[in-house]
Known about the structure:
Radius of gyration: 30 Å
Largest sheet: 9 strands, antiparallel
Number of strands: 27
Structural class: alpha+beta
Number of helices: 12
Oligomer: single chain
Amino acid sequence: MWGLLLALAAFAPAVGPGLGAPGTSVLGLAPPAATEARGSTLAPQSSPVQPPAGKSNGTSEQHVRIRIVKKKKIIMKKRKKLTRPGPLVTAKPPVTTTPAGALDPLEEQEPGCPPLGLESLRVSDSQLEASSSQSFGLGPHRGRLNIQSGLEDGDLYDGAWCAEEQDTEPWFQVDARHPTRFSGIITQGRNSVWRYDWVTSYKVQFSNDSQTWWGSRNRSSGTDAVFPANSDPETPVLNLLPEPQVARFIRLLPQKWLQGGTSCLRAEILACPISDPNDLFPKAPELESSDPLDFRHHNYKAMRKLMKEVNEKCPNITRIYSIGKSHQGLKLYVMEMSDQPGEHELGEPEVRYVAGMHGNEALGRELVLLLMQFLCHEFLRGDPRVTRLLTETRIHLLPSMNPDGYETAFRRVAPETRAVIEWMKRIPFVLSANLHGGELVVSYPFDMTRTPWAARELTPTPDDSVFRWLSTVYAGTNRAMQDPDRRPCHNQDFSLHGNIINGADWHTVPGSMNDFSYLHTNCFEITVELSCDKFPHENELPQEWENNKDALLTYLEQVRMGITGVVRDKDTELGIADAVIAVDGINHDVTTAWGGDYWRLLTPGDYMVTASAEGYHTATRSCRVPFEEGPVPCNFHLTKTPKQRLRELLAAGAKVPPDLRRRLERLRGQKH
Length: 672
C-alpha cells in the first residue's frame, strides 16, 4: 500500500487473477476503465450510469490537483478530469458550526507518516466502529483499503463498510489505541461485482475519549475541511490533512455519495506514533528485528547496489549473473549463493526463489534481498544452519522478475517470460517458490482446472502429497499465518485449511509458473502469498522479515526430502545425462542432469524406482525414504544393450567380430 504514496499518479492496468492475489490491481491504482473486480466477467452487462437529468451526455472539464511524491519532493500537477457519472446525494453534516469550506491547497506538506495498518491487519476488527452497517458483511471491519469482496452480495465477506440507507449522518471510526499524529487518509469505494457505491466527499474529526470531537479545518478560512473522495470504486484517493492532528480516535464523516447507492468506503489512515510521557495508554508493539539488515524499499538502482555490496562482502559464496533483459532493457539479475559459486557440483541440488513477478508486489522483492544479506552475514558469523545450507545446496535468488513493473507499474512483458523459461530449463532446479502479495496463503499446483470452463476445481498433481507437505512447511513456519488471532485478508479464511490451497481450487490460472515447472522441468514449485498488504511501509519490513525468515530457510531445507543419486554407465562409470527416473505408482518422472545426478522429492515410504536411458537396459531397485532428514542415496549402474554396443563399434570404425557377424546374418534370415 505504501507504494501508493510513492507513485500516486502512476496508473497501471489490473493484474488479473494470475499468480498473485485474485483480481487485485497494480498498486490498487488502475484507472476505472482498466480495473476489474475479481469475477467481474460474471457480471451482467448493464448500461453505464446516466448523467444528471437535464444535462447532455458530454463530459465537462474539471481541474483537480494530483500530488506526486518523489524522493521527498512534491510536484503539483493539474490534469483534466471527467465529471462524475451521476448526480450526488448530500448528507446532513453531523457536526459543524461553520459552513463547509473548500480544501486549502497543500503545497508544502508531505505524507510523512506511514499507514496505521488497516490494510495490513495491524489494526484489529475491534478498533473499527461505524454509525451503522447494512449487514455484518458490510460492517466496519470490512472498511479496509484494497479489501476484496466475494462473488455474492450479502455474504460475510463483502467489499467495504456500508452505512444503512436511512443513516443520514454516517461515520466510520478508527481507534488507534494510543496517542497518534494523524496526517492523511486514503479512500476507495466498494469492491463489488454487482454494485457501484462510493463516497465522493467527507469530513474528518478527532477525539481522545470518543465523546468530545473536533474537526479538521482549513488554515485560511477556519471552516470545516471537506475532502474530495472517490469517483470510481477502485482508484485510491489520498488526502493530506491541512494540519496533522494528535488524538486517539479518528472519524470519517461521508458528506456525499453516488446517487442510487449508499455511503460505502474502504480506507487507510496515515499516522505516526508519538510518545506518551504519562504512560496512560498501553505501548504500541514495536516492529523490529535483531538482524543487522537494510530494511528499506529498493528501486532498480538501489537493488543493484545492494547486490553488489553483498557480493563484495561475501565474494567466496556469491556470484551475480543476468538471465536476460526486460522489455525496457533492464537486466534481470540473479544472486547465486553456494560454497562453489558458478558451477554445478555433482550431487548438489539447485533451488531458487523468484519475486517481483508483479511490479506492485514489493514485499517479495525485499524479502529476497533481505535473505541474501542474512545468508552472507550468518555465513561469515559461522552459523551452522546457514553454513550447511550453502555447502549442500546451490541457491539462486531472483529479486525482480519484472523490474519494469516496479519502476513504472506496468504489467510484465514477453522478454522477461522468455528469459525465465530459458533459465528454468538451463539449470537443473529441484525446488522453487515464487513470492507474491495480497493474501496470506500458500498455493500449490495444478493451478489450471482440468475442466476447461471451470472457474475453480480441485486439480491435484500425481505428487499431491509432496506439494501439500511443501506448502504446509512454509505455512507452518510463517508467523503471520500461524497467528490464531489474525483475520482473513479478503473473502476467504484459508486458516481453516492450514493456510494452504490447491491453486486450481482457488481460481484457475492457465500457464502458471508452478504448472510449467512441474510439467516441463524437474522442479517442484509453489506460490507464497506473503501478506495482505502488497506494498508495506518500510517500518513494517522488519516485522515482515521476522514473519518469513524461518519459513524461507526451512522451505529451502526441504530439498533434502526424498531420494538422490547418480545414474552411471556400468563399464565406464561415467554419468548418464537425461536418464529417466520413474517411481512406481506416481505418474511423473524426472531426468538426470548432465553429470548423471538426479533428485526426486518424495514423502516418507517405500518406493520401487526405475532408471532408464536410451541404449541401456533398465534397472529397478527399492528405495526407502525415512522420516529422518535425508536425502536417501539411490544410485544406478546401467548396462548397454548389444545394439548400442554395435552402434558404438561401427561408429568407431571397428570391424564386426566373426561370431557377431554370423549371428546378425542368422537374424536377418529369420526376419526375411
